[in-house]
Design brief:
With 589 residues, this protein is of the alpha+beta class. The protein has a five-stranded antiparallel sheet with strand order 3-2-4-1-5, with helices on one face. A hairpin with a 2-residue loop joins strand 2 and strand 3. The longest helix has 26 residues.
Length: 589
């Protein structure tokens, strides 16, 4: 009895920390796991058992395959077809939702939406369409698309592992396809009709400098011989420290030095292009003796398109930027890029942005060489908007061969999912589609740590009888009605995704679904699959899945916008699942 209270307290603490987002989800899960070890609930072997689960290896190898897929020429084809639908917003929404859903069935959900966001943003800017009408359907489409195959999302793989551990046949590669296709169609039709009108009517994207209000903060000043900063390095001047002035470029002898590093020395006669507020500009001119040059009708960023350009990029949920500042990362020196503005929840920030801690979904307006933009994406977990990444055909054949081989081998039963995944990842490495560093970068380490830790938390809940108690409560509530029990499982899992990432929600509810099936004497397959579907219905907040967080800033959404558009879709998805699941997987075969 004592251990049950301890486990309950630890689980409640984990849920509270995950809901507040004060710490990243993998750190929270590890803390919960460590607490179970300190309390003596789990042995050392039990604490580590989750990290050896085959599902984690499969998640890692499928993430590698997804990254390799991004190296193919598919993006150019997607851009062509989506561009055809661009003049008709609802047709574009349907096309985007369908494409992302189909991609998500065979690759990581975040990778799928990362492919589509730049293309959709470019089409929206070309045809002056509000991004708020386009981004959320992509995110929700990626979630339901992940239910269509075994490799579509981590909960599918976890459910298969639970079945195998309980002595049942694991899920087949295409076993979920019928249900997944139905959910994709329901989601697409929803956003083609009522869902489209429930999405906010945001601003139409314009010129980047105007969209982020950057032109209001751009000024040009001259360094005079009497100026206090003449002869100082940028780091030595008080321009950034006291006046929040960001030096974008220096013109010296007719040559423009873009994104000058901190050690760059300022000389008399230099022309500086600054990003600074009007108030600070006046104060800086008076105190430092710099000369403010006359402002034309509209000050613009003077760029050589071949050498420098502005673009915006969204910060992914697992980006190393999250929780850190640009100053801590020494961003400009390391990556050769200046950040002109940061957009968060539709609001643009210009003041002290070097000290602003990044969050998933933030959108950065970057200035620098085009090559630096693309080179910064992978290590920083950024997704460039408005432009499809450069892709070639070199990777097409090895990736398609590895991917097709994996599907055939698993679907035919020739190889297990783990073996086929490892073999496919090895092929990607041997054919040098991805470098060794890219292979390691492709693995979602925070997700693996979360899942490995959640196995321990779920095992502890089951060990002290909490899963059985909750299953008994559901049976009492539904009076042993199997259909109502499935509905409660779906609602419970879906509801948890409002405050938890969906994989964590699945791991907490899966043991309850197994205990519930045992209590009814039913086949656990349907109960686990309804839990998978509930975890895919993470439509209530940007917290439920990285895909939701990725479009948060791009679409300029508020927290409540997710629930406004997501509640109706969740009801439709739930009703579809409750109708189809018992028919595809009989409860009492």
């Amino acid at each position: 009895m004592y251990e049950r209270y301890v486990v309950a307290a630890i689980l409640l603490a984990v849920l509270a920390l995950l809901a507040t987002e004060r710490l990243r989800y993998d750190i929270v899960a590890l803390l919960g796991l460590a607490a179970l070890g300190v309390a003596g609930v789990l042995s050392s072997q039990e604490l580590a058992a989750g990290f050896g689960n085959p599902a984690l290896i499969t998640v890692a190898t499928m993430s590698i395959m997804s990254r390799a897929f991004q190296k193919t020429a598919l993006l150019r084809r997607l851009a062509y077809y989506l561009g055809k639908a661009g003049r008709q917003p609802i047709l574009l929404v349907c096309a985007g939702t369908l494409l992302v859903s189909i991609l998500s069935a065979f690759m990581n959900n975040v990778a799928a939406i990362s492919l589509a966001i730049p293309i959709m943003t470019g089409v929206a800017r070309r045809y002056q369409l509000p991004l708020s009408k386009l981004m959320m359907p992509l995110a929700f489409g990626s979630l339901v698309g992940g239910t269509a195959t075994l490799i579509g999302s981590p909960p599918n793989l976890l459910a298969s592992g639970f079945l195998q551990a309980w002595g049942f046949t694991p899920l087949g590669f295409f076993e979920l396809t019928g249900l997944g296709v139905a959910l994709i169609l329901v989601t697409t039709l929803y956003f083609a009709t009522i869902g489209y009108h429930l999405l906010p009517s945001g601003r139409v994207p314009r010129d980047l400098e105007l969209e982020y209000s950057v032109t209001d903060y751009i000024a040009e000043v001259a360094v005079t011989p009497q100026c206090r900063v003449a002869g100082m390095t940028i780091a030595e001047t008080p321009m950034s420290r006291l006046y929040d002035a960001n030096i974008l470029s220096i013109v010296r002898g007719g040559v423009r030095i873009l994104a000058p590093p901190p050690h760059q020395r300022l000389l008399a006669g230099d022309i500086l292009q600054l990003e600074v507020s009007r108030e600070n500009l006046v104060a800086m001119a008076g105190n430092l003796g710099i000369k403010v040059l006359p402002k034309e009708a509209e000050v613009e960023l003077r760029l050589d398109p071949g050498r420098s350009q502005t673009c915006d990029a969204v910060v992914s949920a697992d980006s190393p930027l999250v929780g850190r500042t640009l100053k801590e990362l020494d961003f400009r020196r390391k990556y050769g890029l200046s950040v002109l503005a940061i957009k968060r929840r539709g609001q643009s920030f210009h003041h002290r942005i070097a000290d602003l801690r990044m969050s998933g979904g933030d959108v950065l307006l970057l200035l620098g060489p085009p090559r630096a933009h693309s080179e910064a994406c992978d290590p920083l977990g950024l997704v460039l908007l408005g432009q499809a990444p450069v892709t070639g055909t070199r990777a097409d054949y090895p990736v398609l061969f590895a991917f097709a081989g994996l599907i055939v081998a698993v679907a035919s039963g020739l190889l297990s999912m783990v073996t086929a995944g490892i073999l496919a990842a090895v092929i990607i490495g041997l054919t040098r589609v991805l470098s060794l560093q890219e292979l390691y970068d492709a693995v979602p380490w925070p997700v693996l740590i979360l899942l490995g830790s959640m196995f321990g938390l779920a095992a502890a809940a089951e060990q002290v009888g909490m899963s059985g108690l909750l299953a008994s409560a559901i049976l009492s509530l539904t009076r042993g009605n199997p259909g109502l029990s499935l509905a409660v499982l779906f609602a419970l899992t879906s509801g948890l995704t409002a405050v938890l990432v969906n994989s964590a929600a699945f791991m907490l509810v899966a043991p309850v679904s197994l205990a519930l099936a045992a209590g009814l004497g039913a086949d656990p397959r349907a109960f686990l699959i309804i839990t998978v579907a509930g975890s895919a219905s993470a439509f209530f907040s940007p917290v439920g899945h990285q895909s939701n967080a990725l479009v948060y800033g791009v679409g300029g959404y508020r927290f409540a916008d997710y629930a406004r558009a997501g509640v109706g879709l969740s009801l439709l998805v739930g009703a579809t699942c409750l109708y189809l699941v018992p028919r595809f997987w009989p409860l009492f075969p």
